[in-house]
Amino acid sequence: MSENQILIAPSILAGDFSKLGDESKRMEQAGADAIHIDIMDGHFVKNLTLGPKAVAAINRSTELFLDVHIMVYNPFDYIERLIESGANRITFHFEATEDVEEILEYIRKCNIEAGLAFCPETSPTMVTSFLDKCDLILLMTVHPGFGGQKFLDDMLSKIKLTREMLDTRKIRRGGKVVEENPQSVPPFPIQVDGGIDDQTAKKCIESGANNLVSGTYLFKSPDPRAAIESLRNPL
Ligand code: DX5
Ligand code: ZN
Predict the structure, then answer these.
(1) What gap in Å lies between CA 113 and CA 25, rounded to an integer?
(2) Can you give the pLDDT at residue 3?
(3) Quick check: 64 and 35 in contact, CB under 8 A?
(4) Quick one: the chain helix, strand, coil %, rounded to 5?
(5) pLDDT, tens only, 97-121
(6) CA–CA separation, 137 and 216 (whole Å)
(7) If you average pLDDT over residues 179-198, what whole number do you get?
(8) Contact 218/224 with Cβ under 8 angstroms?
(9) Within 6 Å (CB) of ligand 1, which residues are found?
(10) Whole-structure pTM value
(11) Is 167 a catalytic site residue?
(12) Within 13 A of 229's CA, how many CA atoms are on the CB side?
């Protein structure tokens, strides 16, 4: 992965739920890097979505990396089943548990990637202690719970600050501290999720994000290949 590589993960929440497999395949054929699957429990956020069976169904229909974003309390209770269903990365919320470090460690022990998500109102200083303990930081750019919301511009400074902290501490992919020649290891992934289109993608990339989730913009586009490209290389 080159320094500037931007990965795109369409959020299946915006797809047609009567054909989750076909929708995932459609994004794979359009050049997506992963499928982002939102799991909500009706408590941590006021919405209900998909569960492990849907993850398994998506897994059967695409070769893509499955990026599972769980907006649930007690994240630990769901990890095993999600991994059995084919999750390649599980990203849970900092705000949902007091056992953040234990859960990150457990997910990694299961040989998949561990991501940590932060709601818009959570201070960027909270991110600091976990940068070398996870594989991805997800900075929510809307309040979690629903697709189709407006991007929160205030989150750009949080993205910038997180990238600066990573650079200062020389933390690269896998949360590794690379003292000698840090550029030789790919950058640490900062993911953004919520209200991402070609305009907001540009601002996020400029601020230091390199992993973009997008639902409404990609699934409603008549030309998903061009739409994915417009996120990867916004004008
Ligand atoms: C919101 C979800 C997002 C959502 C993004 O809670 O985490 O993944 O599906 O959808 P858009 O791109 O429509 O904001
Ligand atoms: Zn999400």
Answers:
(1) 22
(2) 55
(3) yes
(4) 40, 20, 35
(5) 999 999 999 999 999 999 999 999 9
(6) 22
(7) 97
(8) yes
(9) 11, 13-14, 36, 38, 69, 142, 144-145, 147-149, 193-196, 213-217
(10) 0.98
(11) no
(12) 6
